[in-house]
């Protein structure tokens, strides 16, 4: 077995570790940061991007996702990853290439629920809260499943969007079901181009910047229809904002509070997190804006790997995780390689393993491989929100999974 070079154990650094309470001094609180339009335009210098992404609660009003008093322990099973080699377009990349070329600021690998590798870069530490970007979509869809399980969305996936979000009555969302919404297959026109100031995504961002109650739904209500509900997939952050409104009305409490009561506390997240708001004391931003520690992102992945159970009790409807994380079917019968706001596997190895992922622009990633009992959580600060990563994160995750499998079978 190749021996790893000694690495600074930042995870074990207790000199300035932040307690879970959000009122405690945050080690990054005084750093200079950019603004959200710079982030979406890809106009942040590398250091300013890092500072901004670990201080996103300073960009918008946010609501606390409160942790409990008993963090879920993560065992330690350190394993050398020096032998991990990911092949992309005939080029071989090792762990150190991956961390540098993909601007990774935190990487944590769980196997059988134990930490086998944990590293932080660019001044991040175990207590650093990092932006989720679209990883929040997978959190929001999971809350919808919990609300169905709790009987708060009585019609289940057949629930009509306009029954729960009256601001959309008479709009192109009339006749759109919750399942259509989760698949981003409403048939409503949408342009998700982050860097285009004229796109629908940037219009939604401007509504968020304005911080006026109901501003996001005004943007969504004005959109035209492009296809029949359920017939065509079109990735839309706006649809996750509608989902946030729907779940908020169904559960009759803020999403951050519902998430804390249903998952953050009972599953044992170790730190408070925060979630952006559409307006002061308004609804959470369903498609982005969670700020949480890397370990708690990994715990969220482990929760999904555990079948959505806490102490043997399922928090999700029967069959939900399989339906949410596997290819879905459009109204015309075509298969869609997208679940309920989860990304289905796109590499051959991960497809065989029935793996799935939550991902966000700038390189955020949670990879769940139920066949090999592996969760990989990653924070990153890619320079532009264009998905132009040098090394495909799922290719790297495949390489990690294969390496760990080989390590397990190697003689002691």
Shape, principal axes of CA atoms = globular
How many strands in all? 17
The first-to-last residue Cα distance is: 9 Å
Side-by-side strand order of the widest sheet? 2-6-5-17-16-15-14
- Proportion of residues in extended strands: 15-25%
Average pLDDT, to the nearest integer? 93
Tally the helices: what do you get?
A: 14
Radius of gyration, CA atoms, in whole angstroms: 20 Å
Helix content: 25-40%
Note the quaternary state here. single chain
- Which spans have pLDDT < 50 for at least 5 consecutive residues? 6-22
Helix and strand content put the structural class at: alpha+beta
Task: Describe the model.
This protein is an alpha+beta fold and 412 residues long. The chain is built from 14 helices and 17 strands. The protein has helices at residues 36-41, 46-53, 95-101, 135-149, 161-164, 178-182, 200-210, 215-221, 237-251, 255-264, 294-305, 320-325, 348-352, 393-409, and strands at 62-65, 75-76, 85-88, 91-94, 104-111, 114-120, 130-131, 273-276, 290-292, 309-310, 313-314, 328-329, 335-336, 343-344, 356-360, 364-369, 374-380. A seven-stranded mixed beta sheet has the order 2-6-5-17-16-15-14, with helices on both faces. Strands 1-8-9-7 form a four-stranded antiparallel beta sheet. Helix 4 runs parallel beside helix 9 and helix 7 packs antiparallel against helix 8. The longest helix is centred in the C-terminal third of the chain and has 17 residues, at 393-409. It is globular, with a radius of gyration of 20 Å. 50% of the residues are buried.
């Amino acid at each position: 077995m190749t021996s790893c070079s000694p690495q600074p154990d930042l995870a074990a650094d207790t000199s300035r570790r932040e307690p879970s309470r959000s009122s405690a001094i945050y080690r990054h609180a005084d750093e200079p940061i950019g603004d959200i339009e710079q982030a979406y335009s890809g106009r942040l210098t590398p250091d300013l991007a890092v500072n901004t992404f670990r201080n996103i609660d300073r960009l918008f009003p946010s609501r606390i996702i409160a942790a409990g008093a008993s963090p879920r322990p993560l065992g330690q099973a350190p394993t050398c990853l020096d032998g991990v080699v990911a092949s992309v377009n005939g080029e071989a990349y090792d762990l150190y290439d991956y961390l540098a070329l993909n601007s990774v600021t935190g990487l944590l690998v769980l196997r059988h629920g134990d930490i086998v590798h944990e590293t932080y870069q660019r001044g991040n530490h175990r207590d650093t809260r990092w932006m989720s970007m679209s990883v929040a979509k997978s959190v929001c869809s999971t809350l919808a499943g919990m609300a169905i399980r709790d009987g708060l969305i009585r019609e289940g996936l057949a629930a009509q969007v306009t029954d729960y979000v009256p601001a959309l009555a008479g709009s192109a969302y009339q006749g759109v079901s919750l399942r259509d919404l989760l698949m981003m297959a409403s048939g409503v026109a949408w342009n998700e181009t982050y860097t285009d100031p004229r796109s629908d995504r940037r219009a939604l961002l401007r509504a968020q910047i304005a911080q006026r109650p109901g501003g996001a739904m005004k943007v969504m209500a004005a959109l035209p229809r492009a296809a029949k509900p359920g017939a065509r997939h079109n990735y839309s952050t706006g649809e996750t904002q509608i989902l946030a409104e729907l779940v908020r009305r169904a559960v009759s409490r803020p999403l951050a509070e519902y998430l804390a009561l249903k998952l953050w506390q009972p599953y044992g997240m170790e730190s408070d997190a925060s979630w952006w708001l559409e307006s002061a004391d308004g609804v959470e931003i369903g498609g982005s804006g969670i700020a949480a520690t890397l370990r708690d992102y990994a715990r969220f992945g482990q929760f999904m790997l555990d079948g959505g159970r806490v102490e043997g009790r399922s928090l999700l409807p029967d069959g939900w995780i399989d339906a949410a994380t596997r290819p879905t079917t459009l109204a015309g019968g075509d298969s869609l390689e997208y679940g309920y706001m989860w990304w289905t596997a796109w590499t051959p190895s991960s497809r065989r393993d029935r793996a799935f992922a939550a991902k966000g622009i700038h390189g955020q990633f949670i990879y769940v491989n139920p066949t090999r009992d592996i969760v990989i959580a990653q924070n990153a600060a890619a320079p532009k929100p264009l998905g132009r990563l040098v090394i495909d994160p799922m290719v790297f995750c495949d390489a990690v999974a294969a390496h760990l499998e080989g390590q397990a079978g190697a003689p002691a």
